[in-house]
Amino acid sequence: MYVFLHVSSGDPLIESVVFGHSLAAYSASYIRKRYLRSDIGIIFENMNSTTRDSDSDGRAPEGPRSPLRVMQALEELAASKDGLTLTRLSERLQTPKTSLLNLLRSLEAGAYVTQVNGHYQLGANALRLGALIGTRLTPESSISAKLHPLLAEMMEQAEDTTLLGVMGDDRRHGVYVDIIESRGAIRFSSLIGTRRPLFCSAFGKTLLAFQPAAHIDAYLKDTDLVLPNGGRRLHPEEVRGSLAAIRATGVSASYEEIVEGAGGVSSPVYDRNGVVVAVFAIAAPIARLKARHDRLAGLVHAFGDRASRLLGYIGPYPGKA
User: Residues 180-207, buried b or exposed e (16+ Cβ, 10 A)?
Assistant: First the structure.
């Protein structure tokens, strides 16, 4: 509901309030005590007072509060594991449920908020925004900035989605920190900040393959090696065999291990110290990936090598004669 305040000329006292398109006159005692007149940027604390806030205490006029309320609502939802009901969120924000509901509906339409069983939770776009902000606060952000042009060039040549991934903080998952989607109508799509297990997915296996042997041993011992898609349980030796092949060839591949109908190929990115700090990947619908596997594998391998040289690596690249 939009509220418009009418003020008599030369006098800041409110004369009437417009709710929607209907004009209704109210005495000061029936009007809430905080209203913003947006066209002149004034908040009237007391309807019986003829003094502006900024004149009475030296403070600058307060700006519109809706953007701030949006951020406060998202912050409350981010802090709640199972989401919040409208009533509970209204209590925490000390905001009327009617106005809060309008705000939440707008956020829901933009996929920043979703509703599950009467509880509001962060939506996909809010999570994506958080991930984008997070990548700017980490050392990987400089890697992403340096490698983005190469990632874009690889997408143009592959004509499929390209991704840059790094090791997650828990050392058990890989995380996408940059994605350039194909312009094709049928394409692989994901979000920056998406995590993948290290024992499956092309880029996850590439990250794991170049970890120290002790880390690999501990990871395989402590991890339930069940593929997310299909539920097949992998034997640790099967995973070890895949990792050895990746170290030898510099290329990893996966077919529907995570998502049905999709797969990918990937190669490592070394830094100047010879440490694998990132992974280049190409992801595509499974039929297209299988039909062009050799070409896409060769492409991601070449770009992984180029990305490594860009970061200052001068050593031999795996699988390169």
Answer: bebeeeebbebebbbebbbbbbbbbbbb
If we measure between CA atoms, which residue out of 36, 118, 35, 134 comes closest to residue 84?
A: 118
Q: Give the C-alpha separation, 20 to 3, whole Å.
A: 7
pLDDT tens, position by position, 255-281: 999 888 999 999 999 999 999 999 999
Rounded CA separation 125/123 (Å): 6
| Residue 248 pLDDT | 96
Residue 114 has pLDDT above 80, yes or no: yes
CB 25 within 8 A of CB 6: no
User: Domains in the chain and their CATH numbers?
Assistant: 3-57 (no CATH), 66-122 (1.10.10.10), 139-310 (3.30.450.40)
Q: How many residues does the chain have?
A: 321
pTM, two decimals, is 0.59
- Cα separation, 94 vs 69, in Å, equals 10
pLDDT band at residue 21, thresholds of 50, 70 and 90? very low
> Containing H/E element for 263?
strand 262-270
State the residue for tokens 């190669």: 267
The torsion region of residue 118 among left (phi > 0), alpha (psi -120 to 50) and beta comes to left
Q: CB–CB of 191/124 below 8 Å?
A: yes
Residue 54 and residue 47 in contact, taking contact as beta carbons nearer than 8 Å: no
Judge whether 233 and 225 are in contact, CB under 8 Å.
Answer: yes
Q: How far is CA 308 from CA 24, 130, 243, in A?
A: 69, 28, 20
**What is the Cα–Cα distance from 320 to 244, expressed in whole angstroms?**
16
The neighbouring-strand residues paired with 174 are: 167, 196
Q: How far apart are CA 275 and CA 284, in angstroms?
A: 28
pLDDT digits (tens, 9 = 90+) for 129-160: 776 665 554 555 578 889 999 999 999 999 99
How crowded is residue 158: how many other Cβ atoms within 10 Å of its Cβ?
21
Give every strand in the sheet of 195-197, ordered side by side. 195-197, 173-180, 161-167, 276-285, 262-270, 252-255
